[in-house]
Design a protein that fits this description.
Elements (H helix, E strand, L loop, with lengths): L5 H12 L8 H15 L4 E6 L3 E4 L2 H13 L3 H8 L3 E3 L10 H9 L4 E9 L2 E10 L7 H55 L3 H14 L4 H9 L12
Antiparallel strand pairs: 1-2, 1-5, 3-4, 4-5
Length: 237
């Protein structure tokens, strides 16, 4: 097993946990995970598959292999993302009947063994991490444990980022709704004053005009508040 300097390992774990930066890029993050697996573990290549995103890999040949595997809909990545369990294949040649297209592609790419681990947090499974070796054989247990730990940390980071993005989107939507309501209330006041209406009748006038002219009430209200809309057209004939 290759050595894992404590400093580089610590740096990797911190980088995998740091997903809250505004500059966070998911593709770069997945490539970081794949590349660090190659540097820290006794493997020759690595690929990451996210169910709702796609593939990132430590090399172009792995990327091509994983894309081809998705096309054929077979391989350890698919079994792993279906079961949520690790898929251990110490000798791909023995799995030709199980995954004929995948095994052929993998052996052409120069790989003889794979170990696929789930990207999973509790009951949520988001993808898989596949480790490739050029020679047949099992990964040593410390490598497997470290690989799963990195996969787990990456999963927590990805899910945390997604939750944060959802919160930001919801907050923006709520703020937009609040801003629209404020503008509408201001427009009601303008119409009530100029047209001699109470606020209920002013809102009905605003809404009816917006509907009949296929525009949003909030957009019409904004143009009224900004003075860009001639409110005289709303007067009763």
């Amino acid at each position: 097993m290759t050595s894992r300097p404590g400093e580089e390992l610590a740096e990797t774990l911190v980088e995998l946990a740091d997903t809250t930066s505004p500059e966070f890029d998911l593709d770069d993050f997945l490539r970081l995970l794949a590349n660090r697996c190659v540097r820290l573990l006794d493997v020759d290549a690595a690929g990451v598959f996210l169910i709702d995103h796609g593939v990132a890999a430590s090399s172009e040949r792995v990327a091509r292999l994983e894309v081809a595997a998705q096309k054929h809909e077979e391989g350890p990545w698919l079994d792993c993302t279906r079961s949520g369990e690790q898929i251990v294949v110490p000798d791909l040649a023995e799995e030709a009947d199980r995954w004929p297209a995948y095994v052929a592609e993998a052996r052409r790419a120069g790989f003889a063994a794979v170990h696929t681990l789930p990207l999973r947090r509790r009951g949520e499974l988001i993808g898989s991490l596949t480790l490739f070796s050029a020679e047949p054989g099992l990964l040593e247990k410390p490598d497997v444990r470290l690989a799963q730990a990195m996969a787990d940390i990456a999963t927590i980071g990805i899910l945390g980022t997604r939750a944060l993005r959802r919160q930001e989107t919801l907050a923006a939507q709520l703020q937009h709704a609040l801003n629209s309501r404020v503008i509408i209330e201001q427009a009601k006041g303008v119409l009530a004053e100029r047209l001699g209406l109470d606020t209920t009748a002013a809102f009905a006038t605003l809404r009816n005009y917006a509907r009949s002219h296929n525009t949003r009430v909030s957009e019409l209200a904004l143009s009224i508040v900004d003075g860009k809309f001639n409110t005289d057209v709303l007067r009763e004939p």
